[in-house]
Write a structure and sequence with these properties.
This protein has about 250 residues and is α/β, with parallel strands linked by helices. It contains nine helices and nine strands. Bound molecules: S-adenosylmethionine.
């Protein structure tokens, strides 16, 4: 009890120091992370706390403090709107819908394509990189219905349940994309997604590739580096937990 009071008091002190020094503070599941927000967020009425709540409400424990990734999405959504980059959004690797909901909230007027088995990894993809199903990373404790309830079952949300790239057949031939978020963890679906989405990106469109710098999923960097080796776009790395990388489709 005494120990808890001590902890609460030091938290209060830390909060007060951080507030007084004008730095935004994030509660990182009991520990603390301090992150500068972009100046426009910190010095306007922008309600970062509300976005942070959305980000952490069902995010896995170790991603809750990955606020750099949240800020990256918010910042680049503004770029897309400001520059008028046309097109829909897509996500490969939805799981319970954390980033899907963020994308839908950032771009409520745009179609959001969601691709997932909603039953976890496919054995074909695991075999491709000689992996066996791993108890910690199965992603099978979700469902399409639950994700639609969470993200919002609007007619702008087009969820394609099943094995990607087979499910990509649902996308009309003339569809273009302003932002695509690749978060499938594995090499094979990432290779397939780059091949599918790259030619459909609008000029200036963002391909956001999660886990490029991840030690857990080395296949992502292999797939991305091989794909972009003969493309005019360069990869730019983000300072978030799993080393997200971004490529913007060049303007032709
Ligand atoms: C890391 S999770 C996605 C996390 C999610 N973006 C979030 O916000 O929490 C990876 C997901 O990719 C999906 N996935 C991997 N390979 C796939 C494939 N070939 N087809 C469809 N879904 C796939 C898995 O089912 C899993 O739900």
């Amino acid at each position: 009890m005494k120990e808890r009071h001590g902890r609460d008091a030091s938290r209060r002190l830390l909060r007060s120091i951080v507030r007084r020094t004008g730095v935004a503070m994030a509660d990182a599941s009991g520990s603390y992370a301090v992150q500068h927000l972009p100046e426009w967020m910190a010095k306007s009425s922008f309600d970062f706390a509300a976005w942070r709540r959305l980000w952490v409400e069902q995010n896995p424990r170790n991603d809750r403090a990955d606020l750099a990734r949240l800020v990256m999405f918010v910042e680049n959504a503004r770029v897309i709107e400001r520059e008028g980059v046309p097109g829909s959004l897509a996500e490969l690797g939805v799981y319970k819908g954390t980033t899907a909901k963020l994308l839908h909230t950032l771009f409520p007027g745009r179609t959001l394509w969601l691709f997932d088995t909603f039953e976890g990894f496919d054995a074909r993809d695991l075999a491709h990189e000689h992996r066996t199903p791993n108890g910690g990373f199965r992603f099978d404790d979700t469902s399409l219905a639950a994700v639609l309830r969470y993200v919002g079952a609007s007619d702008r949300v087009r969820a394609c349940k099943g094995y990607f790239p087979e499910t990509a057949a649902a996308v009309p031939g003339d569809e273009t994309f302003a932002l695509v978020h690749l978060d499938a963890d594995l090499k094979k679906p990432t290779e397939d997604a780059l091949a599918f989405f790259y030619p459909r990106m609008a000029p200036g469109g963002f391909i956001v590739m999660h886990d490029y710098g991840s030690g857990a999923w080395p296949g992502i960097a292999e797939a991305v580096d091989a794909f972009f080796a003969d493309k005019p776009e360069s990869i730019v790395r983000m300072p978030d937990k799993s080393g997200t990388a971004i490529a913007r489709r060049v303007k032709r």
